[in-house]
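protien #1 (seq + structre)
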Amino acid sequence: MATFSIGTHTHLCMFHHFRNSRLSLHRLHSLQSSPPSLCRIRGPSLLRNHVLARAEDKARGSSTSSQQQFQDLPTESGTCDPLCSLDETSSQDFESSYKPKTDLLKAVAVFAAAATGAVAINHSWVAANQDLAMALLFVIGYVGIIFEESLAFNKSGVGLLMAVSLWTIRSIGAPSTGVAVSELTRASAEVSEIVFFLLGAMTIVEIVDAHQGFKLVTDNITTRKPRLLLWVIGFVTFFLSSVLDNLTSTIVMVSLLRKLVPPSEYRKILGAVVVIAANAGGAWTPIGDVTTTMLWIHGQISTVQTMKGLFVPSAISLAVPLALMSLTSEVNGKGQDSPNVLASEQMAPRGQLVFSVGLGALIFVPVFKALTGLPPYMGMLLGLGVLWILTDAIHYGESERQRLKVPQALSRIDTQGALFFLGILLSVSSLEAAGILREIANYLDAHIQSSELIASAIGVISAIIDNVPLVAAAMGMYDLASFPQDSEFWQLIAFCAGTGGSMLVIGSAAGVAFMGMEKVDFFWYLRKVSGFAFAGYAAGIAAYLALHNLNISPPTTLAEVPFLSGS
């Protein structure tokens, strides 16, 4: 058995190097006759470095470098070519970290907690005090989401458990199970529209990104002057985020910054600008941020009125921080020249075509809704279907480019993020079905007379708490009878929930992505950026109120298009 295992690893090494390094027949013969020790473990660090080096060499079309790296690898006992030892490395890592007793205790604790929860839910107290039980469970679940890093629990799993538990309590406390099922069916239909919309949008963006389509945007940024680059990065992100979601825009622009600016305090400032600009840009279009998308899908805001009413406040909420940051020492310092790394990245074949079709599909969604009256997610699925057929056609017979097709893109999208939205929205809908959100709305109306203050407070809270459940709660607390479509309240909700998350790095998906990519900590952002972001937030609200009270709206040609005027 040992002999068979060694022989198998040897032939695997021979196969991988023949495929990736294109070795000569002579080299293959020498590899096959090499000692069995060639295919043992070398170590995680060397493994990772050589795999990355191989990937880079392959991207540049260089086979010579790969062969040289292979020949330079030591062949003493305890070493291995990295490409043939992935499974063995994973197996040994698992064996070294496997602790049966600890894992058993964790499993017992999870099952004990589940059993305790099941017993508690079935207690008669829950049925008699449904509202209190649901409120307590929502708070506990939300604390788990906020402290997911400390508790080592993924927020998507916590959100799904919370949703199911809340609806279970609702079924116990409802007049009958049939009533609860009817409420759940209606809530699921509304929530699924948002989830399908997000999945379609994320897949389209992933396909465009796989084709390096965003190079068409990033290649046009050539300036290296610190102050000018600050404004260019800010407004490129602002407009990019109005079409893409703010998370994708942040990932694209921070990746670009790594190629334009060397590691420095200045690059962190630029990354913070990307976060502020991505959140501001997503607030003034229905497809720019998940919260505006939610409001748009459910009819609280319309396309043209939102763009007319929120463009200027969103631009001011970005321009004010940019102006203030331009005065800081980090921006006024001397700019550092950096090599043009972008030139080494090649756009995939037909990348420009895929970028144009993908961008057109995203922009066409509101037009499709206005023309057909169907929900927006149908327009997004239409665009995804067109792009799917297109990529299958243009890459037909190209087996080496499978990653550019939709099936591979589906495996790379943020599915857990979509499941998190599903859990959160279903949880909030259970509170709405139980009448809890209406009670909170009545309390706020009785104690806070100004709708502007309520919307502004939601924006501030969104810097601490995720804006998705906040907006979902606001939608449940106030219906269209209280505030009609495109009213000041709903537009302020869209603006405040979108831009308020910029005040803390953990307040938005864009900030969390930036924190992970650039290794920025919470307190650095609090010291260096939060004050500027708050100034922009306040200036944007003031600008909106001034324009609204004076009945001033920016001219737009879209308003003259008949089929968009009522969208």
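ok now protien #2
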Amino acid sequence: MAEAYPPSVSDGSSSDNSEAGNWLQGDQDDGDDFSEQETVQVISLMDDKVFDDALAMVTYCKEKYGLDFLGVRDRLGLDFYGCIKLINLIRQKVHDGKPVKSDEIKESDLEDDSLLKPVLEDDALIVCLDDLPPAGAAAPRAQETKQKETPAVDELLQKNAQLQEELEKLSQQFSNYRLAVQQTLDQRWGDDDKPESSKARAAAPAPTTNETDETKDGSKPDSPPEATYYFESYAHNDIHETMLKDTIRTNAYRDFIYNNKAIFAGKTVLDIGCGTGILSMFAAKAGAAKVLAVDNSAIIDKARENVFNNGLDNIITCIRGKIEDVTLPVPTVDIIVSEWMGYCLLYEAMLPSVLYARDKYLKPDTGLLVPSHTSMWIAPVADEEYVTDNMSFWRDVYGFDMKAMQEGTYTNCRIDHMPDAAVAGSAQCFRMLDLHTCTKEDLVFNEKWSSTYTSKDKLDGFLVWFDTFFCESRQEQVEKQLTWRQWMDIKGKESVAFTTGPFDKETHWRQGLMLIDYSKQPKGSGEKVKEGAKLEGEIAYAIPEGHHRGLNIKVTWGLEGETEDKKQSQMWLCH
């Protein structure tokens, strides 16, 4: 076969060693080592003074600043969550330079559930709430000296057991607190469609908490059944595991982001269709100042956990919803990163959502799209063994004709990774998309293509795939007929691009295989394409009526110089 699309070396993979974050520091499994854990450091509510216990801190605040934390707690009858809100209210007022007076704090000041989100990261006072005297009890003064006597061994063991029980209680209490925060934020920023919830969202400040889901949407609204199926398909782990294990895909994004930390440092990044949050976390690790992760499926809960557990919740804000429907907490972003590509590139119609966000949020002239360009390729296919195994098989199954089982096999675009030996002619790029300039209208088209047939076997169909390029500036261009490998050879070793084609390692996109149904073609047409023949024709992409996330691909082909009435054509549905 022709070497028009050169093979490449295989791509190695590497893992991302992200640090994990936990609500409670330390190994809770090693109970016997409890006495060796670090001393808790409680930061004052009113200044930056640090204390070894919560009681000493609240006593200090009362004596020096007149802030009676326990008095306010008892006066308002606050429970555990109420105390958390009170802590965050006081810390926020102190942070904003506003006065804090015990007798002026009212119950209505603590109604806002956003106060459940800690103002001070890893606030030890919240962990130590149970160390404070219960309501109604007189608060003893903090101990100013430590006992010098060495307690007996049995007393130490008893104390250790008590501390273990308290630690388990705190762990459970914090699990409940964590769940309460998640449920509250879900309701506040999009999971609750009740009218009063919408009113609260309208009056609330821009979202600053974690929400997630998948956004692969055009400007046309989904019909209810299609919307439900589409977004629910991204709610389960399996599809995300498949994508993450696609090292060609994931390594490309990681390598571009990590190799270009100067581009991401201090920038605001928008991740559309963030899924598990992997691209958002890459951007945060590369130095982005703020990352907005937008998604619209139930994977949101897992993404929120991933962001928090890796200690990146102070950088990444996860927002649930379609990008067309949500309101971002910033007017513009510096970078849009998205893995929007579908089968045959445009299946699932997510690119229109990226273009919508580009036009609405990306800074003009300087804003960067990641990736920046994609090219689409077509080549003829001849693979008699594949056709026999997948098509002819049904005509003789243990002596029975089961042609009914072939329904759709010639009308649907099959997604498969074909061996390079099956490619029966030179490949041609029929469409290049510059994501900084292309429009939604550019995604429906009819393009010419040509190829030199190199096989001695019958033409069985056509293969479609795409290449993806990551440019470092929006001014950089990619020549249409360059393969990803040729472009990287020109750019140098730090450049990043990948292919979904048959000449390289398989990706989860594989290729779109369109087999010719010769029973619907003119008689003898299967024999007219010979080795060395020049093929020419057109390929058209269109959106099926009533299924705007689907894709119709129509190919017209014939020998060079043939009139249009002599050429053949067939349409396949990608779904």
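DSSP finds 15 helices and 17 strands in the chain.
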